[in-house]
Each structure stands twice: as C-alpha cells, then as structure tokens.
Amino acid sequence: MKNLKIFVLALGLFTLNVSAANLNPIKPTDELRVEMVNLIGSNFMEEMLDEEYAADVLFTVNSKRELIVLSVDSDNSQLETYLKRKLNYKKVNHKPGKQGEIYLLPVKMVKQL
C-alpha cells in the first residue's frame, strides 16, 4: 500500500512537470534575426550537395546577451551541428523582454550559383 501511494505521488509530480513544460516560442525581432543571419554566414552551402536546406532553431537569450541554442530541428545532421557551432553562446545586442523567453527561428539556406 505504501508503494502504491509513492507511485501515485510520483506519477502526479511527473504529470505536473510535463504539463508545465509546454513551450510557446515567439518570433524573434527583425534586428535579432539579422544578427543571427550574419552569425550563420554562408560557408555551409559551399560544401553541400543539395540546393536547399531548412531547419528550425529554438533558442533563448541569457542575461549576458548570449544566444543559447536549445535545439535545432533539421533532416541534415551536418546543418544541425553547423548552426549550433555558429550560434551557441554568441553575443547579440538583443535584450530579452522577460527572463526565459524562448524564440523559434526558421532557417532556410539556399545555394547561390
């Protein structure tokens, strides 16, 4: 009986944690987006075979005005690694409106001829 109570309590806490983790990312400002595009650069496309790649970058900006990449969702693992390396812990001029704001930036990279 004691084990059942502990299990129900643990299940309740887990459910509460999962429901509190719902993310509602917001779109970054135009200035922040331009800064990120400059940080990303265009070197990646020189080594790639396909003409176009896409990714969704989920990130936040800490109190030191550094980008913290939370996740990169892409079909190409090389692109994920490249974006994380180019963006993570890089300084930007953006000051977050409130602590813990989470942003979603869709990235589309197209090879220029």
* Category by helix and strand content: alpha+beta
Rg (C-alpha, Å): 19 Å
Number of H- or I-type helical stretches: 3
Mean pLDDT: 82
Q: How far apart are the first and last residues' alpha carbons, in Å?
A: 70 Å
Strand order across the largest sheet: 2-1-3
The helix-strand sequence is HHEEHE
Shape: extended
- Helical percentage: 25-40%
As a percent range, the share of strand residues is: 15-25%
How many β strands by DSSP? 3
Task: Give the SSE layout.
Blueprint (H helix, E strand, L loop, with lengths): L1 H19 L9 H11 L11 E10 L5 E8 L2 H11 L14 E9 L3
Antiparallel strand pairs: 1-2, 1-3
Write up this protein:
The chain has 113 residues and is of the alpha+beta class. It has one domain (23-110). The protein contains 3 helices and 3 strands, in the order H-H-E-E-H-E. Strands 2-1-3 form a 3-stranded antiparallel sheet, covered by helices on one side. The longest helix is centred in the first third of the chain and has 19 residues, at 2-20.
